[in-house]
Write a structure and sequence with these properties.
single chain; mainly alpha
């Protein structure tokens, strides 16, 4: 007597094989949709961020340097040791700002890479559960389109504000006994410098 157990097992095996074939088909579509997100793509994005932000740092430095010279000149300190010390300090602040902005660019690209990988992983997970390749393929195309032109280039605040309003005022006030409350030559309406979370040294070149 036969109860069709063999036929039932064979049918289940065939269904699972068909399901895996659909999943494989969908995975190919997902991988194709995200194929452009290569290491070269992310490095290009990092370079785009640096190209947009490093010149801003340089312009802010030149503006602060000019205002420093004007402030010192008005007080007859242009050739003083204080002027030399402040100039050196400002140069150090420039190097710090360039390094921080470079690290922030790297962190922004790393965050983008994580978001893209997470989106792709979510789509593949849904595909594994549904075995619907067409839906997964469309989801992947939509997601890849959203990330293809990410807005990771953020406007910079004034990165020299703290140096101008705190260090410069304190240094001149302490050196020459002038009231600190009157030594704020640089007032800006932009944000202050933020600390980066990324620590990878990045090379950069500014004119």
């Amino acid at each position: 007597m036969s109860f069709g157990g063999g036929d039932g097992s064979q049918a289940i095996t065939q269904q699972e094989a068909q399901r895996q074939a659909l999943i494989s088909q969908g995975a190919q579509q997902v991988n194709q949709a995200f194929a452009g997100y290569t290491p070269q793509f992310y490095e290009g994005m990092r370079q785009n961020v640096l190209a947009a932000q490093l010149p801003q740092v340089q312009r802010q430095y030149q503006q602060t340097q000019g205002q420093l010279a004007s402030n010192l000149g008005n007080q007859g300190l242009i050739r003083s040791s204080a002027a030399r010390n402040l100039g050196s300090s400002l140069q150090e602040q420039l190097s710090t700002n360039l390094f921080n902005v470079s690290n922030q660019a790297t962190q922004a690209v790393q965050d983008l890479q994580k978001n893209v990988a997470g989106e792709k992983s979510n789509i593949l997970g849904q595909l594994e559960a549904s075995a619907q390749p067409n839906i997964a393929g469309q989801q992947a195309l939509d997601a890849a389109s959203r990330y293809s032109a990410p807005s990771i280039i953020q406007p910079l605040g004034n990165l020299f504000q703290n140096w101008s309003n705190i260090y410069l005022a304190r240094q001149i006030g302490q050196t020459y006994g002038q009231p600190q409350q009157s030594q704020y030559p640089f007032q800006y309406q932009q944000g202050s410098q933020s600390s980066p979370s990324a620590k990878t040294p990045i090379s950069y070149n500014v004119g």
